[in-house]
Fold this sequence. Notes:
This protein has 312 residues and is α/β, with parallel strands linked by helices.
Amino acid sequence: MSFIPKKEASAAKIRTVTLGRGxxxxxxxxxxxxxxxxxxxPIAHCPIIGIEISDRIAQWESPGIREFYHGxxxxxxxxxxxxxxxxxxxxxxxxxxxxxxAGNRRIDECVCDALAxxxxxSMPLAIMGCKNSEKDSALFPQIAQALPEENLxxxxxxxxxxxxxxxxxxxxxxxxxxxxxxxxxxxxxxxxLLQNAAVDGSRIVMNIGTAAVGYGYEYAASTFDRIKAAALxxxxxxxxxxxxxxxxxxSWSVKESIASEAEEPTWGSREERAIQMEIATAAxxxxxxxxAVIMRHPAAVAAVxxxxxxxx
Length: 312
């Protein structure tokens, strides 16, 4: 007798969210099955990869990254080069130096960079803040107002600053990423707060927290599992937003990625360690249910793109 497996597609589905505009826009979400369960139902939209471009990128020491961006001097140069990276779907402009404790770069300078890159690049653009709520609360609204209708993604909005950022970003037609720390209840609560502030669910994505593999990643993994189960099996509409995972800031900050070969002679090539850490962390997030990952190294991006193409 032939065996016909029972399909386990859910009646509920992850919301679809569009980033960017025009021919280069991308759509994330839409799945009604667990990650990569294409045997239960077609995968609506393949997860995508964002390329991190920091305003401190010239300080990155990776030989592979330096080689890829050789000759770039301005942030716009870096962004245009990033668009050519194999596997790239969108760009992530990371204003690290806006942090009052790490340069305190002026807001008007950051806005000028965002304007230039939006003008010169065609890929969808995400804006990543400096993690200082006071500075992000001042920076994000100004970028949102300077680039109305560009459908930017703002990474990230937290409970302590959503009341300042969300109304302006929403009024200008942008997408908001709700950031919480490895807790399904906090993730749901912030999504509800944003919707109560008149942000439509189709303009919300989630950063539910991640970590480099081996660094407490089990907390992130369990949060992914619980959120996907609630969204699909329990049809919880307040957890049906797509998930964006900022992999590169986590994976490039751990000891395996930054310890020199002189410090750890038995660990092998520092460059190769960092690439493998980024690949492993991205793969873990994607198989957990991330709809987009943010990455940095060209070799890691190419490997994860191949990984995605083979699974989807």
